[in-house]
Amino acid sequence: MNSPAWCFQCSACGERFPLDKPRAMCDCGAVLDCKPPPGKFPSPPTSRTAGLGRYAGILPLPAGRRPLLQLGEGGTPLLEERFGDRRLFLKVESTQPTGSFKDRGYVLLVNHLSGWGVGEVVGDSSGNAACSLAAYCALAGIRATLYVPSRISTGKLRLLESFGAEVRRVPEGRSAARRLAVLEGRRTFYAGHVTHPLFLHGVKTIAYEIWAQMGKASPGTIVLPAGNGTLLLGLWLGFGELLRTGSIRSCPKLIAVQARSCAPLALAFQRGEEGPVRIDPEGTRAEGIAIPEPVRGKEILRAVRDSGGRMVTVGEKEIEAAHRQLSRTGFLVEPTSAAALAAATATAGPEEEPVVVILTGSGLKTLPAQ
């Protein structure tokens, strides 16, 4: 008899599907979750070695896929710094292969795509996820078509082109890019990072790394930018597993940061709504969180509330000041990351409580073109 295995499960109707065949969504149209085998969840890895193999016990890795396709993702530093009167721990995800935490999610998903024999995919992104998907598809020999807003940073656009992806710029913005990608994905395979559950399981490795880097303990608070919420949901997934195995006593409070000019989740949190509110978005330098219609909005709000955290907003002047402050400290990050620092330095809390700020992406891709 075969032992129980990881499976996809519909978030709406509960239908289950094996992981050995390509699947992006449930037949009913709802997003999928990825569920572990029943029984005791494995203890977290203690090895300091980076890479997917280190997490074999806690990840839904593709069966029989050896060697794994990898670009050296994971193993990012956690650095203690002081900003004014605040002592913060910076998780520097900007050092990933393509410069953002998205590499953690796509390395896992693309390994499955390769194992499934998928030869062509479609994705959508404000930039970082597209760059990551393009890179791992190039590694796997998979053709990638990517829909992006026409205002995408020049650096991100050049990076996409260098990986050989087909780029389709959408003047109507981020939400329209997703709709077009989903439509084309019916013909090929829609590899959207927002909806695919394997992506979240790759991202959850950040939680395990923070736990190990803090001496097998949970920080009191994590401050992070939130647009589509894949980082937040991945962290909540990982710390939830650590709590389930008894590795931590409590999960960290999640403080999710949105730009004031595009804050459908923060407004919903303030009003006590279960899902994101409709907004008329304005422009923001923090393009990575300029998401007017977050697909997993209800899940994000639930996770923030369950953690005892909150959603906050920061203005453009605050983002610019934090971006300058990080640069002057030696951290070249994109404005989206600076939004998290802007919120963290203004967040009240006991000094003795460890506060982690996630620096999500590199500033090399957002430097203005000369």
Round the Cα radius of gyration to an integer and report it.
Answer: 19 Å
Tell me the distance between the termini: 63 Å
CATH class of the largest domain: Alpha Beta
Low-pLDDT runs: none
Percentage of residues in helical conformation: 25-40%
* Mean pLDDT reading: 92
Overall, the morphology is globular
Based on secondary structure, the structural category is: alpha/beta
Q: Can you count the helices?
A: 11
The profile of the biggest β sheet is: 6 strands, mixed
CATH architecture annotation name of the largest domain: 3-Layer(aba) Sandwich
Proportion in β-strands: 15-25%
Strand order of the largest sheet: 4-5-12-9-10-11
Tell how many strands the DSSP assignment holds: 12
What is the element layout, followed by pairings?
Elements: E1 7-10, E2 16-18, E3 32-35, E4 78-83, E5 86-92, H1 102-116, E6 120-124, H2 128-140, E7 143-149, H3 154-162, E8 166-170, H4 174-185, H5 197-203, H6 205-213, E9 221-225, H7 230-244, E10 253-259, H8 264-271, H9 297-306, E11 310-314, H10 316-328, H11 335-346, E12 355-359
Parallel strand pairs: 5-12, 6-7, 7-8, 9-10, 9-12, 10-11
Antiparallel strand pairs: 1-2, 1-3, 4-5
Observed structural traits:
11 helices, three-stranded antiparallel beta sheet, Rossmann fold, 370 residues, alpha/beta
